[in-house]
Write a structure and sequence with these properties.
The protein is α/β, with parallel strands linked by helices. It has 3 domains: 65-172, Beta-Lactamase; 182-343, Alpha-Beta Plaits; 368-604, EAL domain (TIM Barrel, Alpha-Beta Barrel). Helix content is 46%, strand content 21%. The strands form 4 sheets. An 8-stranded mixed β-barrel has the order 13-14-16-17-18-19-20-21, surrounded by 4 helices. A hairpin with a 7-residue loop joins strand 1 and strand 2 (77-80). Helix 7 (223-230) packs antiparallel against helix 8 (232-249), helix 8 (232-249) runs antiparallel to helix 9 and helix 13 (416-436) runs parallel beside helix 15 (458-469). The longest helix has 58 residues, at 3-60. It is rod-shaped and about 190 Å long. The relative contact order is 0.06. The structure holds ligand C2E and calcium ion (2 copies). The site of ligand C2E has 20 residues, from strand 14, helix 13 and strand 18.
Length: 618
């Protein structure tokens, strides 16, 4: 190969290269461009997919989503998703272009959605709860989660609001709060709310020296008897009646609370233009004392009220509540149906009461009770015809405690049921023993307390005692106070008829101190009426009592009732009762209540009211 041909070949190659290079370059560049384009397409596709996904999410989201412009104060709605339309009932066309605040109307004239406003104002994301209304006007609560959207410059132009309906939760919360603060039976404030309001009232009064706050504790007297004898439902209705009456008896600014069972409380606060006074407590007492009719049964309820006063008795809410409670017990001790203001000495009494209650438990088992018997004497013959059994407590430290000092406590704690059963058993046993010993055929009167009377198995247990002791029912008399019988009239009638059917005698104790009239008592199968000693004691000095006693005697006789005068201490009283035809007397004049041995001695000696009279006159 010659030189020339080599050059030719080289030149040819060079030419070829020159032609191919741009082509190669072009191909390579094209490939790169293609790759880039493909990548762009990929990106775009991805973006599209993401957008589609978002749109789909938006479309399919069960949660209403609203996009608004971040243009305060209007915040125009730009779009809403289908869930929004579906959940709220507002069509997109209705709301787009309107302000977001048209969806969350102000409540009570003020914007309820300060939280959301603040987020938009501050151009930041977060959560807020707003109150709204559904299309049908029912209230709704929404939890809104707001996320800002920014443009290329980073400025917030829009907000995405995801709206979550929390109405149910709110309702539940409200219900919980209701449970925490209100009594479910009456809807009144409960103890927790009373305390809270009392604390608020005290705080307010502190800023206004001289202003007082009163807490009145109200306990219905003998309510448990109604509850036990008529059943829970009737009891609940009675509680509701009392609640309504209390609400009507107080001022709007006062709080009435139910603390449980038959306990209520009223919080009375003073303001510049109103003071609290005893007259307001009187109103409470009177409101309750109105007769109430439940299931056709008439009840006359009374209550005992204890009052503690800020700042006189203390500055601490809890302490004031405790003091009002103590004062209420004192009111009970004062014979119920009254009110007492707390004073420091009551604290000591409350402590003593607690100690006594502890000592009273188990006293029956320890054999610490005893009975004294007081003779009842026939005014015509002067002979002992009956006796009343009176319990006392042989306290290991205090010695003999009279019934007046522990019966109320025993009644309140329910211990009376056990004590009363012991008394009944012992009185029947003793009477039978005297009869068996040939001393006399007397009837024995046993006092029945309200709690005992309310026992559903009262008649059965009395019968069982009669069987166990072998005493004939005609020699047993039960003494019931007038107010006890009148508390639940229909039930009383039932029980009394039942006792009567078994041959047991029935006597009305302390007659004249209650509210009932004799004609009303006519409905009850009663044998004996005991005129209360308060009338007897004044018959020789008070003409009114003279008239009362003489008319009780004649009315009782017209109803074929036997009349016993209690508390006869003097010869003058005796003479008056004799002249007015009273049947029997019981009192210190003839004999105090005495231990069984002394009583047996009296029977053996055939003690008489008229030792000076010839025997034929007896
Ligand atoms: P009460 O049923 O009215 O009993 C009569 C009370 O008057 C007795 O008081 C008696 O000692 C007293 N008394 C009798 N004669 C006279 C008198 O001439 N002048 C004066 N000033 N008082 C006289 P006591 O024994 O202190 O009993 C007080 C109350 O305790 C009784 O009043 C009765 O309600 C209750 N009680 C007594 N024993 C029992 C019981 O076994 N069960 C129940 N549930 N209560 C009882
Ligand atoms: Ca009695
Ligand atoms: Ca009496």
């Amino acid at each position: 190969m010659n030189h020339q041909s080599i050059w030719l070949i080289l030149a040819g190659i060079a030419l070829l290269l020159l032609c191919i290079a741009p082509l190669l370059f072009y191909v390579r560049r094209h490939r790169l461009q293609l790759q880039k384009a493909n990548r762009r397409i990929g990106d775009l596709e991805q973006a599209n997919r993401a957008l589609e996904l978002r749109r789909q999410a938006d479309e399919d989201s069960p949660m209403p989503i609203i996009i608004i412009r971040a243009n305060m104060p209007d915040c125009t709605i730009e779009s809403v998703n289908p869930a929004f339309e579906h959940v709220t009932g507002h069509a997109a066309s209705e709301v787009i272009g309107r302000s977001i605040w048209s969806l969350y109307p102000s409540v009570g004239g003020r914007k309820a959605d300060k939280g959301l406003q603040a987020l938009i104002n501050d151009k930041r994301g977060g959560n807020a709860v707003v109150r709204s209304e559904r299309r049908n006007g029912s209230p709704a609560w929404y939890s809104i989660s707001a996320s800002p959207l920014r443009d290329e410059t980073g400025a917030v132009t829009h907000f995405v609001l995801a709206q979550h309906d929390v109405s149910e939760m709110k309702r539940y919360q409200a219900e919980l709060e209701l449970h925490a603060n209100y009594d479910s039976l009456t809807g009144l404030a409960n103890r927790a709310l009373l305390r809270q309001r009392l604390e608020e009232a005290i705080a307010q009064a502190r800023d206004h020296p001289g202003q007082k706050v009163w807490v009145a504790f109200i306990d219905l007297d003998r309510f448990k008897i109604v509850n036990d004898s008529l059943g829970r439902k009737a009891g609940d209705r009675l509680i509701n009646t009392v609640a309504e009456r209390l609400i009507h008896a107080v001022r709007e600014s006062d709080t009435v609370a139910r603390l449980g069972g038959d306990e209520f409380a009223v919080l009375m606060r003073e303001a510049d233009d109103s003071t609290v006074s005893a007259a307001m407590v009187d109103r409470l007492v009177q409101a309750i004392a109105h007769p109430a009719s439940i299931d056709g049964h008439e009840f006359t309820l009374t209550c005992s009220i204890g009052i503690a006063v800020y700042p006189d008795n203390g500055e601490d809410a809890e302490k004031l509540i405790e003091y009002a409670d103590i004062a209420m017990y004192s009111a009970k001790e004062h014979g119920r149906n009254n009110y007492q203001f707390y004073h420091a000495a009551m604290n000591e009494r409350a402590l003593a009461r607690l100690q006594m209650e502890m000592a009273l438990r188990g006293a029956v088992e320890r054999g610490e009770f005893g009975l004294h018997y007081q003779p009842q004497v026939d005014l015509k013959t002067g002979n002992i015809v009956g006796m009343e059994a009176l319990v006392h407590w042989k306290h290991p430290q205090l010695g003999i405690v009279p019934p007046g000092e522990f019966i109320t406590l025993a009644e309140e704690t329910g211990l009376i049921v056990q004590i009363g059963a012991w008394v009944m058993h012992e009185a029947c046993r003793q009477n039978k023993a005297w009869q068996d010993a040939g001393l006399a055929q007397l009837r024995v009167a046993v006092n029945l307390s309200a709690r005992q009377f309310a026992q559903p198995d009262l008649v059965d247990s009395v019968n069982q005692i009669l069987q166990e002791t072998g005493l004939s029912p005609h020699f047993l008399e039960v003494e019931l106070t007038e107010s006890l019988v009148m508390t639940g009239v229909e039930r009383s009638l039932d029980v009394l008829r039942n006792l009567k059917a078994h041959g047991i005698q029935i006597s009305i104790d302390d007659f004249g101190t209650g509210y009932s009239s004799l004609s009303y008592l006519k409905r009850f199968p009663i044998d004996v009426l005991k005129i209360d000693k308060s009338f007897v004691q004044d018959i020789t000095s008070d003409p009114d009592d003279e008239t009362i006693v003489s008319s009780i005697i004649s009315l009782a006789h017209s109803l074929k009732l036997h009349v016993i005068a209690e508390g006869v201490e003097s010869h003058e009283q005796l003479a008056f009762l004799e002249q007015n035809g009273c049947d029997e007397i019981q009192g210190y004049y003839f004999s105090r209540p005495v231990p069984p041995a002394t009583f047996a001695q009296m029977l053996r000696q055939q003690k008489t009211l008229y030792p000076a009279r010839p025997a034929t006159l007896h």
